[in-house]
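Late entry, evening session. Most of the bench is empty. Finally got around to the prediction I had been postponing all week. Sequence below, unchanged from the version circulated by S.P.
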Amino acid sequence: MSDWLRADQDGVVLSLHIQPGAKKTEVVGPHGDTLKIRLAAPPVDGKANAALLAFVAEKLGAGKAAVELVSGQTSRAKRVRVAGVTAEQALAGLQP
């Protein structure tokens, strides 16, 4: 199991390092004990957070309502909970 991925009874919690304002939105790969994701959205007015949640939902095939920002509202270090997804699905869906 990866350091950035923790499974619980409802789904998974992802520990992410976010780089907003990138040229394109993509999964970069492990970054210490987090998973690094570049976002094309700017870190203004919650745009990057909204883009992150939509990107994770799309990559994991989860509904937007299943993806929730647990912590890191204004930080690059974020924790995201995804309900109804197994650890195996998360690992497969978030490959760089």
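Two things to note before I forget:
Residues 22 and 40 are 5 Å apart (CA to CA).
The longest strand covers residues 11-19.
Will write this up properly tomorrow.
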